[in-house]
Amino acid sequence: MARKIQLTLLGCGGVGRQLLRHIVSTRKLHEDQGLRVAVMAVVDSKSIVLGEKNEELDDTALLEICLAKEKNNQMPETGKTFLSTILMDDHATFFLVYPTGRPLVVADCTASEKIGQALAEIADLNCCIVLANKKPLTSSFNVYDRIAALNRRYRCESTVGAALPVIATLNRLLNSGDSIKKIVGALSGTLGFVMSRLEYGESFSDIVRQAKELGYTEPDPRDDLGGMDVARKALIMARLMGWRINLEDVEVECLYPPSLAPKLMSTMQFLKEGLAELDLPMRNRVKEAAARGCVLRYVATIENFHCKVGIVEQPQQSALGQLHGSDNLVEIFTRCYSTSPLVIKGAGAGNDTTAAGVLADVLDLQDYFG
Ligand SMILES: NC(=O)C1=CN([C@@H]2O[C@H](COP(=O)(O)OP(=O)(O)OC[C@H]3O[C@@H](n4cnc5c(N)ncnc54)[C@H](OP(=O)(O)O)[C@@H]3O)[C@@H](O)[C@H]2O)C=CC1
Ligand SMILES: N[C@@H](CC=O)C(=O)O
């Protein structure tokens, strides 16, 4: 009899759908390990789909959900469907979390700010939580502390570096008593892709649109270009180290002017019209750096209870200067790694990689399931 990990998925966009596909395609692998990931519910911003009679959703239903969401962004007529506006309601949260009264992992693959409160309630019920969404861990301490109190019952590897083992590495260092002096890193797949492509003379606006197509950007790419997505990653690491700081405390360089802000234009309008305004200034910045033998990289520095994120000129031959595509690079300086830092490098964005990171986190929780 396989050990069943019951899972409720919040968010059925690029990452959520890829997670469902990974779950279906790894059935045999997990069966050989005596495991089964049982998807009990899939939730988007409008609806909740549950299996009939509180059974898990079978693979046909999961693939049907992926296809229907991809095609017309609607949940299909499968299982039982409810309106998910009730998600914020306590009773509904309970119902969603305990459809069968057994332990459950709730995976947050939304990009929602609001969902933090519901997750805090879910954490109070002592469920396991896996996050790709950075917002619940970077909002108020009321929400953060309740999730963090789950300790080993929550995982958030994909919030920083997609599937790179950044959080796991930090936890190992912290738990073994090493002291972290400084973290420096290129933490954005989107901005890594954009900055390295700029070196080939392509226009900023074209590259950002490609990054969106490739699934690297946030739903609104201004979250990436404004530096907030990187600021959140830096804050997640800082809070993991025990720093009681907030998003407002992070020093952020925004790459677009206030006239292109979300409150003044929609994402669509920004991509179609606003973005091109940044082509010339970015081209000039790249040229000026090149004249000094440097390239541009969007870098996060976490040191002395302060986080800073922004463009830094890097020598072309440096480790950061050599980064290409969506690759992230994280250098961790500690007591044990003082002169030569511990380095983590690799693809840092994309639905496939991110969803694989979420699935690995879910499987890591298997010991909580009898
Ligand atoms: N792509 C990447 O490389 C990486 C992404 N991430 C994170 O993964 C998360 C998901 O990204 P992505 O898949 O690209 O985002 P999408 O915009 O493609 O999908 C988001 C999904 O969340 C759903 N949603 C929004 N609000 C709610 C809510 N209140 N309750 C339930 N569902 C809700 C949306 O519903 P609807 O479909 O109805 O609109 C949608 O299905 C983000 O937080 C992102 O930062 C993390 C690391 C890397
Ligand atoms: N938009 C993010 C996705 C992962 O967090 C990025 O570009 O790194």
UniProtKB/TrEMBL annotation:
Domain Aspartate/homoserine dehydrogenase NAD-binding: 11-155
Domain of life: Eukaryota
Residues binding NADP(+): 11-16
Binding site for NADPH: 110, 134
Catalytic activity line of the entry: L-homoserine + NADP(+) = L-aspartate 4-semialdehyde + NADPH + H(+)
Binding residue positions for L-homoserine: 218
The enzyme's E.C. designation: 1.1.1.3
Top EC group: oxidoreductase
Pfam families according to UniProt: Homoserine_dh, NAD_binding_3
Record key words, sorted: Amino-acid biosynthesis, Methionine biosynthesis, NADP, Oxidoreductase, Threonine biosynthesis
Single GO term (MF): homoserine dehydrogenase activity
Active-site annotation: 233 (proton donor)
Keyword Oxidoreductase: yes
Residue ranges of every copy of the Homoserine dehydrogenase catalytic domain listed in the record: 165-363
GO biological process: methionine biosynthetic process; threonine biosynthetic process
Metabolic or biological pathway: Amino-acid biosynthesis; L-threonine biosynthesis; L-threonine from L-aspartate: step 3/5; Amino-acid biosynthesis; L-methionine biosynthesis via de novo pathway; L-homoserine from L-aspartate: step 3/3
Cofactor entry: a metal cation
Entries under PANTHER family matching the protein: HOMOSERINE DEHYDROGENASE, PTHR43070
Similarity comment text for this entry: Belongs to the homoserine dehydrogenase family.
Protein name (database record): Homoserine dehydrogenase
Provenance organism: Selaginella moellendorffii (Spikemoss)
Taxon lineage: Eukaryota, Viridiplantae, Streptophyta, Embryophyta, Tracheophyta
